[in-house]
Amino acid sequence: MKSKLKRNLSFLIIAAIPLVFYSCYPGGIEYYSDTDIIMTNYHDEFDFNANKNYFMPDTVHYAAGDEDEIDRKFEDEIISEISKNMSELGYIRVNDTIDADVYLVATVTSSTYSGVGYYPGGGWWWGGYPGWGGWYPYYPWYGWGYAYSYTTGSLFIEMAHPDGIDQNKDEIPIVWMAAINGLLSDSGSNTLTRIISGIDQVFKQPPFGPKK
Amino acid sequence: MKKIKYIIVIAVIAFTLNNKVSAQETYINITYDMAIPLGNTADFISKTSFRGYTFEFGWFLNDNLAIDLRWGWQTFYEDLPYDSYYEDTRTLTGKQYRYINSMPITAGLKYFLNPNGSGHFVPYIGAGLGTYMQNVRTDMGIYTVEIKQWHFGFYPEVGFVYEFTYGTGFMLNARYDYTLDAGGNNGHSYLTFGVGFHFSL
After folding, report:
1. Helices (H), ranges, chain A
2. B172 beta partners
3. If contacts are CB pairs under 8 Å, which of residues 28-57 in chain A contact chain B?
4. B71 pLDDT exceeds 90?
5. Fewer CB near the terminus (10 Å): N or C of chain A?
6. What is the 3-state secondary structure (H, E, C) of chain B?
7. Measured between CA atoms, how close is A27 to chain B, in angstroms?
8. Residue A82 exposure: Cα atoms within 13 Å on the Cβ side
9. Do A22 and B51 count as a contact with CB atoms less than 8 A apart?
């Protein structure tokens, strides 16, 4: 009986070895390009057609971080590509904030941001906007618990609606946002192509483009 | 009165001894499992899973009937192509990776049709119920959406053991695992084919 038990246990151990090497999450990301992701979200009660004048700074904002190895040579191309898409959608860029229905800001992260459950906007920069020190962005569509991890060089484009500001709460309503992960962290030769196609894609997605 | 006491004591001893004889042995089953997703599971992941295993520890209650405890794991995986995916006002464009990990912890019964026959072939039917930990996860670039939920579930099962040496046998079975909705999350179902070994202890 004892030898039978011993023999069977040996069989068991041998049979169990492959199971140890099992992965609960097989497959997954293999290449750098597999991490490319473009996310857009918007406030569905905001009338985008009635607010066509926008103000956008000529520069990209770089969110403060521990790492600062972001290639800044594509700044003009980023602003230019956003302007081009906005123009094609019928928006008019104005030079004075007073004339603007909405503000548009492009932000590039110079660090990695990750978390769970919080809406991962790029809005940390709005608190530093002239005249809005200490204010916080407010995302009307807040929700959906998920984990995220934006890598260094992610590009955020956010649209704020100044008329919707809640003076009591010091909150700036963000009515639309786009996030393109890790766009500028790669200094490869196709970076500019990825920037252009990424920015073009965000304007093809709702609310500016249809759900396909 | 004293006689009745003696009769009861003797009957208990006799029953215990008899039980010990009929409860002939315990056993362990270990199988490698492949699973075909069905229902809600197939809606989320359509690919067959080749990553699964089951451990069972059982006791014979009599010559035919055994009770066992099962612990298993089945991983479903599928990657979806680069595309735009919509949810309410949110649009995500990228590659999507989907996973379901299902871990049943169940108790069941097996009825062996020919345990002491002359041949080595011992078919059985079985069924059981218990709890299933099911983890449904979607990875998309930087985003991960994950739902971990305990579900109540049950299964019917058919299979056979082919004993090739005394106390050790080859085992093949088919099992339909079904879990109920829980916590606002969908239950899952899949058809498992297991191949492995049966060890009498």
Report:
1. 2-20, 75-88, 191-202
2. B160, B195
3. 28-29, 34-44
4. yes
5. N
6. CHHHHHHHHHHHHHHHHHHHHHCCCEEEEEEEEEEEEEHHHHHHCCCCECEEEEEEEEEECCCCEEEEEEEEEEEEEEEEEEEEEEECCEEEEEEEEEEEEEEEEEEEEEEECCCCCCCCEEEEEEEEEEEEEEEEEEEECCEEEEEEEEEEEEEEEEEEEEEEECCEEEEEEEEEEEECCECCECCCEEEEEEEEEEEEC
7. 8
8. 25
9. yes
State residue A8's pLDDT score. Answer: 63
Locus of tokens 């208990």? B12
**Structure tokens belonging to residue B26:** 């315990």
Q: Which two tokens stand for residue A115?
A: 């978390």
DSSP β-ladder status, A102-109 and A61-63: parallel
Cross-chain residue pair B92–A37, CB shorter than 8 Å: yes
- Say yes or no for a CB contact (<8 Å) between B167 and A8: yes
Place of tokens 């002939």: B24
Q: pLDDT grade, residue B12 (50/70/90)? A: very low
